[in-house]
Write a structure and sequence with these properties.
224 residues, TTHA0802/YceI-like_sf, Lipocalin, mainly beta, eleven-stranded mixed β-sheet, 13% helix
């Protein structure tokens, strides 16, 4: 029976590892100079915008997913997005109830996971209540670049600050600009260790059970 369980787990891991990714892998580097807000500015519509997140156990098992709300602004010059700042309130972080089954988590619910993620074990919202993203550069998506975002037309770079660590990340995005609205859609993967997001001390087995990859989805709408 034990051997069968191990084989079943191995098979599950193989299926997950072969599963096609639905996000783009962000590239990262050191903190860069933030693009200045000039020309026309558009304020993020919090009710129409959302940041989606998905995290996993090791091997892509047991996905946990949810949302956070965001505020901010974009700057546009000659019909092109040139800068922007987004601030996600981690106090608004909510885990989708369907992502946590109390029947297999010793009675723990999505609300329990919310509290754990906001605790000092992870985001420590009492000290660091928000996550910030400041655009450093927006360029046309290089020719031949494949993206999981349908209609992706831009490559966006920005300083992502989580807790007290800032890392510059670059990812494809679909950006649309009209006279009264700017929209940005992207879905990309980051490595949480780049920001020192770990559960417990270094090498803690509890942290080992959690995948280092976290998927983020930006669905941002800004209006004049």
């Amino acid at each position: 029976m034990k051997k069968l369980s191990i084989l079943a787990l191995s098979a599950a891991l193989a299926v997950v590892s072969c599963k096609e990714s639905k996000t783009d892998m962000a590239t990262s580097t050191t903190e860069q100079t933030v693009a200045q807000h000039t020309a026309e500015t558009f304020n993020v519509n919090t009710d129409s915008s959302m940041v989606n997140w998905t995290a996993y156990h090791k091997g892509g098992l047991n996905p946990r997913f949810g949302t956070t709300k965001t505020t901010g602004l974009f700057s546009v010059d000659n019909g092109n997005l040139i800068s922007g700042s987004l601030v996600s309130d981690i106090n608004s972080l909510t885990t989708d109830p369907t992502a946590v089954d109390p029947a297999i988590t010793d009675g723990k619910t999505a609300a329990d996971l919310d509290m754990h993620l906001k605790s000092a074990d992870f985001f420590d919202v009492e000290k660091y209540p928000s996550v910030k993203f400041d655009i450093t550069k927006v360029e046309d998506l290089p020719a031949g670049t494949e993206s999981k975002v349908e209609g992706a037309n831009k490559q966006v770079s920005g300083n992502l600050t989580i807790k007290d660590k800032t890392v510059n990340v670059t990812f494809p995005a679909k950006v649309e600009v009209t006279n009264d609205k700017v929209s940005l859609v992207s879905k990309f993967t980051i490595n949480r260790q780049d920001w020192g997001l770990a559960y417990g001390a270094e090498g803690d087995p509890k942290d080992w059970m959690i995948s280092q990859e976290v998927n983020l989805g930006l669905n941002i709408v800004a209006n004049k």
